[in-house]
Amino acid sequence: MTDFILDAMAWGGYVGIFLLMALENIVPPIPSEVIMGLGGMAVARGDMHLWPLVAWGTAGTTVGNYFWYFIGRNVGYKRFRPVIDRHGRWLTLDWSDVQRIHDFFLRHGGWVIFVFRFMPAFRTIISLPAGMTRMGLPRFLIWTFLGSAIWNSILAAAGLYFGSNFGVIDHYVGPAAIALTALLIAGYLYRVATWRPRG
To answer: DSSP states of 8-32 as a string?
Structure first.
């Protein structure tokens, strides 16, 4: 994975960072922590500059999140009900759960988008209900961009701070990402096994 990211950065520079960060939000297994961290390492070497790195990375993050927002907006809230009726068992959701999420998002959607930008796995998924509840596009983009800019700045600054030793961090980040993914999958399987519809 690291070699793929480094090759994309060598090929496209800031544009490579933009594409990687957009792809990271469409195909979540690509870790933004490693992308921006390696970008920060490139800044330490003098191959990139910090603020263009953060700007291009954040723009890519925003575009990637818009992909899921667009899908949610076109599917819509009410058109999601047949999916719940048919596949609620595997989604572990009743329609009443969806209604509560919908109502909560209508009241608090802005800060939820912002806060979830700092949460692994959930930071991409949250764009789907934002679209389904038809959150205004400018509002969605602003909250996504702001949260992403802060998070990406932290990651890039970490890569800059550790410089050439970032490979040591990557040695731990990879297994940690795998462990977190395994934990999420185990949690989902447990929820499927124990879930019972309220009806």
So the answer is: HHHHHTHHHHHHHHHHHHHSTTS-H
